[in-house]
Amino acid sequence: MDNTVSELQKRRADNLIWNGAEDYSFAPDFKAYDGNGEADLYWNHIFGAARRRYEYAKLEKLFARLDKYRDADLYESIFWNALEPVLFRTELRGRPVLENLRPEPAETALKFEDGMSADEIVETAGRFFYEHFGLYGDGKIRLKYRLPHLRRMSVDSFLQRGGKGLYRKLADLHDRTFVHEKGQYGGLAVYTGGGDFIGTKLTEPELREFIGTKFGKPIYTAAQVSRLEKQLCTGSHRFTHLFYTKGEPVELSGIYSTFEMHQRKRQAEIMAGNRIHYEKDRIRNRLLIAKLSTKIMNSVLLHMQPESVKAASGAVDPKLAWRAARLGDGKVFRRSENENAGDMSVDILLDASHSQTRRTGSISSQAYIIAEALARCRVPCRVMSFCSMSGFTVLKLFSDYSSPEDNSRIFDYWAEGCSRDGLAFRAAGEMLSRTAYEHKLLIVLSDAKPLDVARIRKDERDVGLSYDGGRALTDTAHEVRRLRAEGISVICIFTGTDEELTGARMVYGQDLVRIRDLNLFADTVGKLIIDQMRNYAM
Predict the structure, then answer these.
(1) Mean pLDDT calculated for residue range 476-502
(2) Residues near 181 by Cβ (< 8 Å), separated by ≥ 6?
(3) What are the sequence ranges of the domains in the chain?
(4) Is the CB of residue 476 less than 8 Å from the CB of residue 388?
């Protein structure tokens, strides 16, 4: 829709709202227009009815405080779609024509009850925005919401806490535009059907600073990241960004401390829960590590090529015999040994999007068991997680090839944000391309449910396409095929539900397993890894 609305339609919207309010003494704040830029009969009546039915000054205070956030348009859209059913039921008795005018209502997790006062509505909304968006407070909109670090809460927070289904319902809500003419940012806060409301009011450096505060100090310099983004953030991932970290906390100060300390406390509880999850079945888990490492080592011994090495015992090498007398070197023998797995590496990539929140204990335990088994076999292993937030795909490094002693950091895994799987795999592939290992295996623990709020855009003016559903799965599958074409084996340990399994098979094909019984973990994962080793030996 062309966002330029004629003066005639603006005046018409005013009159519809005044008629609904039965009051002509105020300047309307919220207005609604259809896809042709014409004043929307139904929604403008609802805006007016809200003024007649409630102490609107109290609602205005809520809107004023929500306007302090960069995604105020999203929050206000959710609020109105939650209040609309209550107003519809109340107004229908006196205006039955609304039955025919009403569009299909949106589903929202925010619910208001008939008969609620303005105070009760504001309190319920405040509690909802705290619980679903992480807005700091005790359930009421408070003055501290105006602090800049709290303005940085984005639509990602909604996806983290509110669920992906609700996002789609709102984004597909007909062809309507809601305009709040008292919004703080640019004078307008607009929601357009199709998802146009998803945007940011912060600069890229400000967002990068926020991401660092949340996920940890960056590994690379700004110049290094810029080069990587020019190389990787192209095509479907244009206008997105990358952030690499080891999770080392950024020192908090000033306005950041209150909210982020609350967030870090929550993360610490999750990480402690991960360790408890592992320890409660410690004996079983240690047996799984031993069993898996035995399977891997047996495969290494079976499939790796023998190599002749100098030794202190074995068959005498005539070419070395002189060293015994002249140099006192006892290693004048040759012994045939199977080549170790030093030419093979394994990368483990953990999906850390919000959809994994209830599985952090099991996912971190599974990743730790694999990493420890590989360490016992001296197979270099690197463990990372990925998620996305505010247009940034974040890769967090837990342990590297040369530091298996850091495997315990895998329990520092926590899930938050969205997941732009295609870009995460592209970035992981770039990291693998810089290693010298001949054989490279990427093990992904994921529910194969990519979704990101950063849309697929051709240029800065392009509204773009949403990165979710079949479109996101196709992009992810393309990146998996690209990795395989480059000689990188990709397998998935599926962590999702039955509904998501079809999408997972679309991405990973036959190289996918679903572990319902952890007692079969070593056998199942061992088979996957051993099959890849057989392929390397051919």
Answers:
(1) 95
(2) 28, 29, 30, 31, 187, 188
(3) 7-201, 256-296+341-537, 306-338
(4) no
Angle between helices 164-171 and 72-92 (to 10 degrees): 70
pLDDT digits (tens, 9 = 90+) for 333-384: 665 555 445 588 999 999 999 889 889 999 999 999 999 999 999 999 999 9
Cα 414 from chain centroid?
11
Report the half-sphere exposure of 249 (CA within 13 A, side-chain side): 13
Q: How far, in Å, CA of 127 to CA of 130, rounded?
A: 5
Whole-model pTM: value is: 0.63
* Residue among 114, 113, 117 at smallest CA distance from 54: 117
Contact 137, 144 (CB under 8 A): yes
pLDDT for 166 equals 38
Query: How far apart are the C-alpha atoms of 54 and 131, rounded to whole Å?
Result: 25
Does the domain at 256-296+341-537 match CATH 2.40.10.10? Answer given as no
* Virtual torsion, Cα 273, 278, 279, 283, nearest 10 deg: 170
| Pairing label, strands 488-494, 512-514 | parallel
Q: The tokens of 213 are what?
A: 């505060």
Predicted local distance difference test score (pLDDT) of residue 106: 73
DSSP-assigned letters across all residues of 306-331: EEEEEESSSEE-TTTTHHHHHH----
Residue 316 has a pLDDT of: 63
DSSP, collapsed to helix, strand or coil, labels residue 125 as helix
Would the CA dihedral through 505, 343, 397, 391 be positive or negative?
Answer: negative
The two three-digit tokens of residue 164, written as one number: 């992906």
Rounded to whole angstroms, how far apart are CA atoms 177 and 190? 7
